[in-house]
Amino acid sequence: MFIHKLYYFFFALVIVSVFLLAYNWHKDYEFDTNPLSQKLEKQIFEKKQQTRQLLRANFGFDLDVPLIVSEKLPSSLFGAAVFTQDEKIIIYLNKKRFKESSDYMIHHVIPHEYAHAVMFYLKDFSKEQSGHSKKWQNICKKLNGIKCDRFVDNHDIIIGKTSF
After folding, report:
1. Strand partners of residue 81
2. CA distance readout (Å), 53 to 1, 43, 80, 127
3. Residue 157: pLDDT band with limits 50, 70, 90
4. What is the pTM (predicted TM-score) of this model?
5. In which band, very low, low, confident or very high, does the pLDDT at 129 lie, cut at 50, 70 and 90?
6. Domain residue ranges in the chain
7. For the structural domain made of 37-161, what CATH number should be given?
8. Within a 10 A sphere around the Cβ of 29, how many other Cβ atoms?
9. CA 60, CA 51: separation in Å to the nearest integer?
10. Distance CA 89, CA 29 (A)
11. C-alpha distances in Å from residue 148, one per residue of 85, 112, 157
């Protein structure tokens, strides 16, 4: 009798697990094949506007840089500020990383990349610390960048996902 109950328990556990796996796969598939939600798009827009306001207040100029969410960036990059040959500045944000942590992308990556855009605007192309000089760090902080370190700290992403 006990063996039958144990059998049914594990059978039910396997069925529930299969449904959870299918549900998670479906959510990942939907995220990968659809544009970002309107809520996320709005948050990105609001952060961009906030960053531009800080730029005007702290530096006295405005910089309207396009923020393009792209699926083509390598997984290792969260974002990239690019200075094109025709001297336009573009910021690319990695769509895949929004699935991992949209808060991190909005509150850490956007100010980080905007600070690079400001450096491009100021024509400061120094290679000091791979573009993360003291001047860049100060700009990043004035744009409300959180932890204006050189690169992504994966520990921050993991801790940000925990509620305790």
Report:
1. 91
2. 70, 15, 21, 28
3. very low
4. 0.79
5. low
6. 1-34, 37-161
7. 3.30.2010
8. 10
9. 13
10. 32
11. 27, 7, 14
